[in-house]
Amino acid sequence: DSGVTQTPKHLITATGQRVTLRCSPRSGDLSVYWYQQSLDQGLQFLIQYYNGEERAKGNILERFSAQQFPDLHSELNLSSLELGDSALYFCASSVGFNSNQPQHFGDGTRLSIL
Amino acid sequence: DQQVKQNSPSLSVQEGRISILNCDYTNSMFDYFLWYKKYPAEGPTFLISISSIKDKNEDGRFTVFLNKSAKHLSLHIVPSQPGDSAVYFCAVKRGSNYQLIWGAGTKLIIKP
Fold this sequence. Notes:
The structure holds two protein chains of two kinds.
Chain A: E1 5-7, E2 10-13, E3 19-24, E4 31-37, E5 44-50, E6 53-57, E7 64-68, E8 74-78, E9 87-94, E10 104-105, E11 109-113
Parallel strand pairs in A: 2-11
Antiparallel strand pairs in A: 1-3, 3-8, 4-5, 4-9, 5-6, 7-8, 9-10, 9-11
Chain B: E1 4-5, E2 10-14, E3 19-25, E4 32-38, E5 45-51, E6 56-59, E7 62-67, E8 72-77, E9 86-93, E10 101-102, E11 106-111
Parallel strand pairs in B: 2-11
Antiparallel strand pairs in B: 1-3, 3-8, 4-5, 4-9, 6-7, 7-8, 9-10, 9-11
C-alpha cells in the first residue's frame, strides 16, 4: 500500500462529457503529480502541484486542468472528452518538489470513453 | 521522439537465473535514473535509482548499471524469483526539470 488513494478506480463515460479524478497523497507528501498511461505506453507526465501551487507542466491538453487543495488532495478535471482520452490516469506524491526521492503512486483510475 | 527506449516489450527468465532489463536514452543531460516495477491493477512502485555520478548501485538482489558513454541503463535481478514477474519501467530526469520521462516498459516473466 503506497498510501496514495485515487478515486474512482474505473470511470466509463461518453464523448463530450466532463469527469473529475481525485487523488489523496501520502501523509506528509506535499507534491502531487498526474500521469496518463495509454495502452502499452510509458507514463506521460501531465502536471505537478507542490503545496497548492502548480510547479511543473508537461503534455497536458488545454481541455484538462488540475488543482491542489489546502488539505493537499488534488483533482484532475478532463472536459470535452474524446475517444483518445481513454487511458489509465495515475497520481503520485512525494515529499519535496524537486527531489530525487521516489514518487509514490496510487493504483490509478481507468477512464473509458464510449 | 522517444527519449527513453525499452526495446524489449517482454522477457522470459528461468527462476533462479539472472534477469537483465535494458533501457536506452538519447539525452546526455539526463542525470538521474530510476526503475519502477508495476503489477497488474496497481500503480508503479519505486525499485532502485542511480545518479549520473555513479555507474553502479546495488540494493539486495537488484543492481542498476549506468553506462553514460553508451547512454544505456540496465537492471540486473539475481536470483530471479516468481514475485519478480511484473512490468519494469525505467524513468529518467534532468536536473531541475521536475518531469520524469518514462520508457514503455518491459514485461518480465519468471518461469518456475
